[in-house]
Structure formats: structure tokens, C-alpha cells
Design brief:
The complex is a heterodimer of chains A (about 140) and B (about 500). Chain A is mainly α. Chain A contains six helices and no strands. Chain B has about 500 residues and is of the alpha/beta class. Classes of the chains: A mainly alpha (about 140), B alpha/beta (about 500).
Chain lengths: ~140, ~500
């Protein structure tokens, strides 16, 4: 897997922030990650199948095992609730970084298969402002 | 009570050529099965139909059940021109994967999930892919057949009552039939893919389409970056209505030949120009085109053996042709893939005829055309050629087709294909041995429903590569036998 682009990392960070992660509180971060997971699931499982969707998230987790030991147990990436539980065991900053990395890695993988354009189109159902965020990131 | 028939709207398939074969498109609210073996294009066609008809007001739902993983399907399908991500983004096309439901709950769970989704989004188009794999797994059970019948009827009812036009995609081997599915379906479209020698040939057949007349038979098909496309089988050419037959003659550019033909070629005729290698068939056909251009009649030359640049370099009329091409008075088409169908060839020719409003066309040569066709299409060469010539002359184009003739003095044959009777006129070129020289003779074998000269005339190439027809070889007998004898008659001019 190639490293996530700045855009993909920024998108992951933005989604977590939109769902309540404030960069400080662990509980808010874990809850936001659960919410992002659930929304992605809701948008992408009909498209990719739930197995297909989870396979990509687990793959992203596997590739991050060295940087983020929380993913040593891949079950953490198997459901929104397990991700939340896994993150709650970490320091707030570490949890935030792990969640960002997981979702950014997921965006790399899905874009590899179906392209960024279709990925963005699919995310729009859950986050209608996603195009605007991406434009903002590109302008930075 | 009014006896007005219910109006059935026809939906465009989005597949080039298919609407014509279907009889105008898919009937709205119809329940259709698209069947065929693996790799024959069912999924591509399903996507094409969905994208062609989807809009925010008329949504399309693409349901995948068991088959290729959706992530790969999306990866590949988006390569086609018809795949519009904007329609995915705005919900015009919605994808739904029910693999888990199928695995956990079988047909019942799939039906429930489809029903729920339809109630939620009210799609106008529903595609279920691959329906067959689901049915196959159910068939294994003891109640398989009755369960499928029940499922089909309920699915058809759900989809029809919510006013959706439905397409089930199913993997079927040739000749395999599911009675329940086939009975319930309003439309049945079968796709084929076969390997013949080194060629892959795709075909499509509308086996059933309730309420409308379709074009019967197997139609050749293809898949390109534009998606699936069908080349409708050529219909029998319309009979020409000749109120004033042969009122206008088309000059060939060779005065002597015009005289032999009774004043030129009757407009809209097809002429077979048969001669051995080096006899000047291409040169004569080029003169026919150049003459037309001088008279304001645009031309089309289809070549099969050489690329246009090579063709223009080797023909003596290359420079004239180049300037005509620049002036958009001539198109030289190169058609050489080895698995062409006659329908593809004709489509290219007809498009070019319409594009430049051609009045004259040259097919150089029929031997090359035959080689360019896929092996299975060669078997129907005579029938296909008959239809092709009819379609071109039906557009008002005068056609000259060259054919290589093996000089055999024991056997006078105008083509190796037995196609001479298909053309309206035949011009024969031969080598003859006279006075220890290999000279050339030309004669007109037939001009349908028209008088023509019976003379055999000598011809030669003038400077500049033009054919000039000379005197009648009246002082010889037995020219076509290879052993001419000097007779008593004098040569006529």
C-alpha cells in the first residue's frame, strides 16, 4: 500500500473531527472513530458488501500494525464497537493518530480499487460536504 | 368502453444497436432475463442499461448477489465510457450487495432485502446480478424447483407492482433452460461468446420480447471501451422501385468501358470487376472514383489488404486521392481486423457514406474482405455480401467491387465465391496471348436489364496510370480459351 496522501490523511482527520473528536478527550475520539466507522459501513457495505468493506479496513489495520500496536489484534478493525473499545485503551493522542491512520489507509485501499472519484461520490451520502473539504485541502 | 390499447413506453437500452434488435427498446415495467456464459458481457450490459436510464427522478438499483466481488466489478466497470460516477454520487444509480443475505437466508432473505430497498428508494430500473448463482444453490435442495417458481413469481410481482423495469442477469450454458424463470420473464436476451479458430465471436439473440416485434436471429456483438454493442443482422435489402430504369448512367472514367456498358453504369448498380493480378482492377476502380469527384459525386474506397497510406502510395491515382481526401470528397477506409463481421463492415461503410454523402463506393477487394472476416462469418459470405451490396445500393450508391480472378482458360469463372450473380453488372479483365505478347482484354459479361456490348476489347495503361480501352479484338477467335486464332473479321473501333 502506498502511503496516504496529505488529502487522505486530512480527510480522515476531518471526518473524526466532524463526528466529535476534539484532539484532546479520549472518549470523544473513540466515539468519533466508532461513528466514522459506522457511517462508512452504512455507505459502503451496500456497495462493496459488508465482507468487502471489512476486508479493506482489516487490511488497513494489518499494514499499520508496526506503527500502531493497537492493531496487533485485527479484530479491532472488524466492527465499529470493537474499534471504539480498542481506542479507549490508548492515550488520547495515540488513539487519535491510530484512528486517523486506519481511515486514511482505508481511503488509499478503496481508491486503489474503485478510484478516488467514486470513493468521494460514495462518501457524499454520509458527509455531503466532503467535496468542499477536499477542495479546501487541495488549496492548502 | 374504449378499445384503445395500453401504451407501452420503450426504454432505451443504452447499448448501441440493441434497441433496433429489440424492436425499439425494453418495454417499461417488463421483467427481463439476460442470460449467457461467463464473460459474454451480461454484467457490462446490466450496468449500461442502468446508467442509460438512471436519473435522480428515475433511479436505478443494481443488486449483486453472488458473483464477482462488487469492489472488483466497480473497479472494472468504471473503465467504460458509460459509467458516470456522478450518477453514483447523486444516488441515480445505487449499488446493493446481498451476498451476506443470500448466504445466510437464501432466496427469502434476498427477496426481503430487495423488497425493502425498493420500498425505500422506488427505483425505476432494477438489475439483479447474478441471479443464476442464487437459483443454482437453491436447486440443490429437495424443494428447489417449487421454491424458485414461488420466488420468481413473488419477485416479478414485487418489481412490477412498484413499477420497475427489471433485468435478471444469469449464467446459463447454451441450451440450458429454467422453466420457471423463462415462463415468468417478459423478455429473454441471450448472449454468446465462442472461439472459432483464433477468433472470438460474440453474438446476441432476443429469444422473447413480449408485446413487440424484434429482429430475429443471431446478431454479432462486441465489447469496446464504449461498452457492449450489437450489430443488427442485416435485413433483406428493400426491392428497388425503378419507375424509369437506368435513367441515369454513371460514367466510369474509362470511355471505352462506358461504351461497352451501354453508356456507363446504371446509377445505384453494383458492379463486379473481375480480373487476374496486375490486370488493373484497382486502377480502374480508382478512375471510377476520380471521375465521380470531377462530376461532384463523392466517393468511398474500402481497402482490406493495405493500409490507406500504402494504398495511396501504390496506386497511380494516389496524389489525386490525397487531394480529394483533403477536400472531404473521398474517404479511404481500412478494415482489416481478422474477426470482422459483415455487419461491422457495413456499419463502417454506411457511416462513411452518410458522412461524406458518397455516391460511389469501391470495395477493393472482395477477396480481402473475405479474409478480414471472422471464420464463422466467411461461411455466410455470399448471403452477407448480398445483403451488404443491397444495403449500399439501397442508399443510392453505385458500387464497384473488385475480385481476384485466377486466369484459367479451361474454366471461365468470375469469382472464387460464386457471387457473380449477386451483382448487377460484371466486367471481366483477362490476359490474352497475341503475337507472342501478353496483352489485356476487357469485356462486359452482364448489365442487368440493360443492353450492353458483347465485344472483347483490348486495353492498356496510358502514361499517368490511366486505363485506356482500345479496339475490339475482332480479328481473333477463341481469346478466352488461351489459344486464339486469327479470324477473317477486321478490328472495329
Amino acid at each position: 500500500m502506498s502511503a496516504p496522501s496529505a488529502n487522505q490523511v486530512a480527510l480522515a482527520r476531518r471526518l473524526l473531527a466532524v463526528e466529535g473528536a476534539d484532539g484532546g478527550a479520549l472518549e470523544a475520539c473513540a466515539a468519533a472513530a466508532e461513528q466514522v466507522y459506522a457511517k462508512l459501513d452504512g455507505q459502503l457495505s451496500p456497495l462493496l458488501g459488508s465482507l468487502g468493506f471489512r476486508a479493506l479496513l482489516v487490511r488497513s489495520a494489518k499494514l499499520l500494525q508496526h506503527q500502531h500496536p493497537v492493531f496487533a489484534d485485527l479484530a479491532v478493525a472488524q466492527s465499529a464497537a470493537k474499534l471504539r473499545a480498542g481506542l479507549r485503551a490508548l492515550e488520547p493522542a495515540t488513539a487519535q493518530q491510530a484512528a486517523e491512520a486506519l481511515f486514511a489507509g482505508f481511503f488509499v485501499l478503496i481508491a486503489t480499487f474503485i478510484g478516488e472519484r467514486l470513493t468521494t461520490q460514495s462518501l457524499r451520502g454520509a458527509w455531503p460536504e466532503v467535496d468542499q473539504w477536499l477542495v479546501t485541502e487541495r488549496e492548502k | 368502453m374504449s378499445d384503445d390499447k395500453v401504451a407501452i413506453r420503450k426504454l432505451p437500452s443504452g447499448v448501441s444497436g440493441l434497441d433496433e434488435v429489440l424492436g425499439g427498446g425494453f418495454p417499461e415495467f417488463s421483467f427481463n432475463l439476460i442470460a449467457g456464459g461467463p464473460g459474454c458481457g451480461k454484467t457490462t450490459m446490466g450496468h449500461q442499461i442502468a446508467f442509460a436510464n438512471a436519473s435522480p427522478q428515475r433511479r436505478a438499483l443494481y443488486v449483486s448477489v453472488i458473483g464477482e466481488p462488487p469492489i472488483k466489478m466497480l473497479r472494472y466497470q468504471q473503465q467504460y465510457d458509460f459509467f458516470d460516477p456522478a450518477k453514483v454520487g447523486d444516488g441515480s444509480v445505487r449499488f446493493l450487495h446481498l451476498g451476506q443475505q443470500a448466504a445466510d437466508g437464501g432466496l427469502e432473505a434476498v427477496l426481503t432485502a430487495i423488497t425493502d430497498e425498493i420500498e425505500k428508494s422506488s427505483p425505476a430500473i432494477v438489475v439483479v446480478d447474478s441471479f443464476r448463482a442464487l437459483v443454482r444453490s437453491t436447486l440443490a435442495g429437495p424443494q428447489g424447483e417449487s421454491e424458485i417458481t414461488d420466488f420468481m413469481q413473488r419477485l416479478a410481482l414485487v418489481l412490477t407492482s412498484c413499477q420497475a423495469t427489471t433485468f435478471l442477469l444469469g449464467e446459463y450454458a447454451d441450451g440450458e433452460r429454467d422453466s420457471a424463470v423463462f415462463t415468468v420473464a417478459d423478455g429473454l436476451l441471450w448472449l454468446y461468446q465462442s472461439v472459432e479458430r483464433n477468433s472470438v465471436v460474440r453474438k446476441a439473440q432476443v429469444m422473447k420480447m413480449r408485446g413487440q416485434g424484434q429482429v430475429p436471429g443471431l446478431h454479432t456483438a462486441g465489447i469496446t471501451e464504449a461498452g457492449f454493442h450489437v450489430f443488427p443482422r442485416l435485413a433483406t435489402p428493400p426491392k428497388r422501385v425503378e419507375t424509369e430504369p437506368h435513367a441515369r448512367r454513371v460514367q466510369t472514367g474509362v470511355k471505352g468501358l462506358d461504351a461497352l456498358m451501354g453508356g456507363g453504369i446504371p446509377e445505384g448498380y453494383s458492379v463486379l470487376l473481375a480480373g487476374p493480378s496486375g490486370s488493373g482492377k484497382t486502377v480502374l476502380s480508382n478512375q471510377f472514383i476520380v471521375e465521380g469527384a470531377a462530376r461532384g459525386e463523392n466517393g468511398l474506397v474500402a481497402v482490406f489488404e493495405q493500409r490507406p497510406n500504402d494504398y495511396l502510395q501504390t496506386t497511380p491515382h494516389g496524389e489525386e486521392f490525397r487531394s480529394l481526401i483533403r477536400a472531404k470528397k473521398l474517404e479511404v477506409l481500412y478494415l482489416r481486423p481478422l474477426d470482422l463481421s459483415i455487419e461491422e463492415t457495413l456499419r463502417e461503410l454506411q457511416s462513411a457514406v452518410k458522412r461524406i454523402k458518397a455516391k460511389r463506393a469501391v470495395i477493393d477487394s472482395l477477396s480481402g474482405l473475405e479474409l478480414a472476416l471472422g471464420p464463422s462469418f466467411r461461411e455466410d459470405f455470399r448471403e452477407s455480401l448480398y445483403r451488404m451490396l443491397g444495403a449500399l445500393t439501397g442508399l443510392g450508391v453505385t458500387v464497384m467491387a473488385t475480385v481476384e480472378l485466377t486466369d484459367s482458360y479451361a474454366d471461365l469463372r468470375f469469382s472464387p465465391h460464386g457471387i457473380a450473380f449477386l451483382t448487377d453488372a460484371i466486367v471481366l479483365q483477362r490476359y490474352v496471348e497475341i503475337g507472342g505478347q501478353l496483352r489485356r482484354a476487357i469485356g462486359v459479361v452482364k448489365v442487368r436489364a440493360s443492353k450492353h456490348s458483347k465485344d472483347l476489347r483490348e486495353y492498356d495503361f496510358a502514361p499517368g496510370g490511366r486505363i485506356v480501352v482500345g479496339k475490339t479484338l475482332a480479328e481473333f477467335d477463341g481469346l478466352l480459351t488461351g489459344t486464339p486464332r486469327r479470324g477473317v473479321r477486321k478490328a472495329r473501333r
